[in-house]
């Protein structure tokens, strides 16, 4: 295998993981969890979302959380921002990186953002411009890249068009999402090979969901193609509220375990990371799907 010596893992649990949880997690516990994540060796943590609280009540304390965490040097603290009002709050909270989001499929975009794809572009362009003027880096998320819960397979040309439009706005990195966990290694291989002439690998992250237990296999496929940035949610926390049954992001701790066993460096202390996983599992009050945590619980 031709594998990288090191990869970057971006932790999205405090945002993508918590946003769909029914049990409300206290602000103090969110802050403590993020502080624990900061001490695990992670270099990137997506800490919250500045979406209107009526849409995501779990993250209504976004400003307080962002202002109260202990910021560790060398760690990027990012947040999801849907529009200019959200950007105002994100800048008030002084996040390091602004994340924008949309879908590659029309129906999912309308369900998720309440706008068509074409209507979404000018809103996001405003956010990117405002964030850049404030000297912030910008990350884009594209959902339903490998399949949509409403439309099924998504036309690759449509995916490419969305990606190119976002890069034209000036984003620094793009995370390609398997929102409902339908991708398989062959599909991932074929798709990423076709995308090579369009997108630079250094500007792409992969965001796999483990709905059908395929996330690590898909990650290994992308690794062999030279991709080296991956999103994860500690413990496998999270899912997609608009995709029935799409529970569970790729568990960061399972990803770290696999990568370390393959002899690749992440800079992450797996013991500390797992301890942070048990902390948030206790606060949520239910077992998380991570295999790593299941093994550690029996030791």
UniProtKB/TrEMBL annotation:
Pfam families in UniProt: HMGL-like
Alphabetized Gene3D superfamilies for the sequence: Aldolase class I (3.20.20.70)
SUPFAM superfamilies, A to Z: Aldolase (SSF51569)
One GO molecular-function entry: hydroxymethylglutaryl-CoA lyase activity
Keywords, alphabetical: Lyase, Metal-binding
Occurrences of domain Pyruvate carboxyltransferase (ranges): 7-274
A GO biological-process term: ketone body biosynthetic process
Record-linked PANTHER family: HYDROXYMETHYLGLUTARYL-COA LYASE
Family: Belongs to the HMG-CoA lyase family.
Listed name of the protein: Hydroxymethylglutaryl-CoA lyase
Lineage: Bacteria, Bacillati, Bacillota, Bacilli, Bacillales
């Amino acid at each position: 295998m031709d594998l990288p010596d090191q990869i970057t893992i971006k932790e999205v649990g405090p945002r993508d993981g918590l946003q769909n949880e029914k049990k409300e997690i206290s602000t103090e516990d969110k802050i403590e969890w993020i502080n624990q994540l900061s001490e695990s060796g992670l270099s990137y943590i997506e800490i919250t979302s500045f979406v209107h609280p009526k849409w995501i009540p779990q993250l209504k304390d976004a400003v307080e959380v962002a202002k109260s965490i202990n910021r560790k040097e060398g760690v990027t603290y990012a947040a999801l921002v849907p529009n200019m009002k959200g950007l105002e709050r994100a800048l008030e909270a002084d996040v390091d990186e602004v994340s924008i989001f949309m879908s590659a499929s029309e129906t999912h975009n309308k369900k998720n953002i309440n706008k068509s794809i074409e209507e979404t572009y000018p809103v996001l362009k405003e956010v990117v411009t405002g964030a850049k003027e404030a000297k912030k880096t910008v990350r884009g998320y594209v959902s339903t890249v490998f399949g949509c819960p409403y439309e099924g397979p998504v036309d690759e040309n449509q995916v490419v068009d969305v990606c190119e439009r976002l890069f034209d706005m000036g984003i620094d990195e793009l995370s390609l999402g398997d929102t409902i966990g339908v991708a398989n290694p062959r599909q991932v291989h074929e798709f990423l090979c076709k995308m090579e002439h369009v997108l630079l690998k250094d500007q792409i992250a992969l965001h796999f969901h483990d709905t059908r237990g395929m996330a690590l296999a898909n990650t290994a496929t992308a690794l062999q193609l030279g991709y080296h940035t991956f999103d994860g949610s500690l413990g496998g926390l999270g899912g997609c509220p608009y995709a029935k049954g799409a529970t569970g992001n790729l568990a960061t701790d399972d990803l770290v375990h696999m990568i370390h066993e393959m002899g690749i460096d992440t800079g992450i202390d797996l013991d500390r990371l797992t301890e942070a996983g048990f902390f948030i599992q206790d606060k949520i009050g239910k077992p998380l799907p991570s295999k790593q945590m299941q093994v550690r619980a029996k030791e």
